[in-house]
Amino acid sequence: MKYANVTSTLALVAALATGGAYAATELGRGSVGSRELRDRSVHPVDLAPSARPLAKAALREVVQQVISDPTAGLTIKVQGEKGDKGDAGPQGPAGPTGAKGDSGLQGEQGAKGDPGAPGPSRSYGHIKSDLSGPRTNITSVTSPGLNLYCMVLPAETTSLVITPDVYDAQPYVLEPGAAGTSCAAGRWQIALLNNHAEATGFFFVAN
H or E stretch including 100? Predict the structure, then answer.
């Protein structure tokens, strides 16, 4: 780097700061350059006060460039005024889905609910031919004839399912008060018909 390069730089800054008034009136445009200036002929006191900070900044940048790379060419960058804010750029693409978060803490146990409505009465059991056998929710059972049974079940009972003890017996069920019943009032009648003419028991489920 030659001193003339730095000097010409300062001269350019001086011309810009003063508006080039003198050169425009006394000399032709572009007639003064590094060749017309003598080495060390431009000093900071020769610059206009408003140009001195700009000249110092330019000189500082030149020195920094030379220190960092003495063999590189000189590029002087003078920072101008801050420009207007640019327009917002387009929205970028959506990012990838994040990792699944940790499970939250277990909540407190809720209050105990109200009791439900009572369910329908249910009767079930096994009635043997001698009227013995386990049973539940049945008041009584009688047998006025061979394979004919009369049962007292809860009043809300609406259906009765019979399964005879022998495979070839056919059950017939009559509700209380039905036509043709042989049982007393309020009793279900169960008749088991088979070809063996022998006593037969049965399983039952009532709802």
Answer: none
Q: Are 183 and 177 in contact (CB under 8 A)?
A: no
Report residue 201: phi and psi, to 5°: -95, -170
Number of H helices and E strands in the chain, helices first, is 3, 8
CB 202 within 8 A of CB 148: no
pTM: 0.43
The enclosing H or E element of 9 equals helix 3-18
Q: Count of residues for the chain?
A: 207
Mutual orientation of helices 3-18 and 52-68 as an angle, nearest 10°? 150
Q: How far apart are CA 153 and CA 84, in angstroms?
A: 96
Query: Tens of pLDDT along 104-160?
Result: 888 888 898 888 776 655 899 999 999 999 999 999 999 999 999 999 999 989 999
Tokens (6 digits) for 169: 């017996």
H helix or E strand, kind and range, residue 171? strand 170-174
Helix, strand, coil: what percent of the chain each, to 5? 20, 20, 60
The runs of H, that is alpha helices, within 19-82 are 21-26, 52-68
- What is 129-143 written as a DSSP string? TTS-S-EES--EEEE
Query: Is 43 within 8 Å of 72 (Cβ atoms)?
Result: no
